[in-house]
Amino acid sequence: MKEFDLKYLSDDVRFIAGCDEAGRGPLAGPVVAATVIFPNDYYCEEIDDSKKLSEKQREKLFPLILQNAVACSVASISHGMIDKLNILNASLLAMKTAVERLKFSPDLILVDGNKAFNQSVPVVPVVKGDSKSFSIAAASIIAKVVRDRIMKRLDVYYPDYNWKRNKGYPTKKHLQAIKLFGVTPLHRKTFLKKFYERESLVKYFYNEWG
Question: Is 137 helix (H, G, I), strand (E, B) or coil?
């Protein structure tokens, strides 16, 4: 993975940032993006695509990444903005914002996916980048841990939906909770409409949001 990043180094590219997001699929909560810049000689074999790691492994790597990164930043876009922008645009905005919050500008940005955002330095989309690029993988871990922690805090206010475990994703228990208790102000309305427009749950959606 480190070799993937290093191949982009040149006389004009000394600092490479990896960027990724977490939370495109959930029915509730924000989408969170992170950006990480490592020293070019830093490597940790435990860092990998966040989806391949357990929550315990991600939590262990979180402080390690922060300690060894040259720079790291995070940004989140709310459920309300996701409804306004759509999830793709919200994700790109989150990643762009995370990059702009870095304490200094990298020379190149590697971003997970097949879409780029406008930036003053080159942005290179990498399909399945979180399993190819060391810096993108690290960013995926930071974004995932931050978002999971947000959902755990929100679970205190809406315990019936079990967000501390499902993190807002459409698990069976989460869907059952929506059937029983309706939607919360933190649910993504556009996502719920998509999921339930052909089911009886649609009445909950329209009764709540009109």
Answer: helix
* pLDDT tens-digit map of 53-84: 999 999 999 999 999 999 999 999 999 999 99
- State whether 147 and 196 are in the same domain: no
Tens of pLDDT along 88-107? 999 999 999 999 999 999 99
For β-strands 71-77 and 123-126, DSSP reports them as: unpaired
14: number of Cβ within 10 Å: 11
66 and 115 part of one domain? yes
CA dist., res. 81 & res. 58, Å (int):
27
Report DSSP state, residue 45: T
Q: Tell me the CA distances in angstroms from 197 to 26, 174, 205, one per residue in order.
A: 17, 17, 9
State the CB neighbour count (10 A cutoff) for residue 77. 24
Residues 169 and 102 in one domain: no
Cα 18 to Cα 72: distance, rounded to the nearest angstrom: 10
The pTM (predicted TM-score) of the whole model is 0.91
DSSP designation for 77: E
> Which residue(s) pair with 123 in the sheet?
109
